[in-house]
Here is the input.
Amino acid sequence: MQAEGDVIRLPAAEPAPPDFAAFFAEEHAGLFKALYFVTGNRSDAAELAQDAFLKLWERWDRIERIHDPTGYLFRAALNGFRMRTRAAVRATRRLVPIVSTTDPFDEIDLRMLLDLSPRQRAALVLLDMYGYGSEEAARIMGIRPSTVRALATQGRAVLRKGNPHDA
Here is the structure.
């Protein structure tokens, strides 16, 4: 029996697992934008984003084991991009014609970014646009931090050459 005025402690409620729909709503636009900068094509960016979210959703019941779900998402997307690029190279070696279509979204003043290699674009997007450090960006891209910094430096140099007003 408790005395009057005693504080009764209720058991702490376990935190609810994060909601995938909320995570998707929060991260989708940013991932799509980053992938558009990397791929230079809206439809490729949309497909890669969808595939990356699917990979994360398949593991959502174990989300507490993933240190950085956003980083995992970006890494899955960039891995998907690299796999597609390698597949395209193999296809060109077999002399399979690749049909390129123009996308009106391509006419945005992002043409300077298309002068960069996909790895340079990815490094610049992760470091400058999303504010990841070189360690996190390296983990996402699956390369060394020094390589991320070198790619970003090379990419910035290419962009400076293309826009003399920013020099």
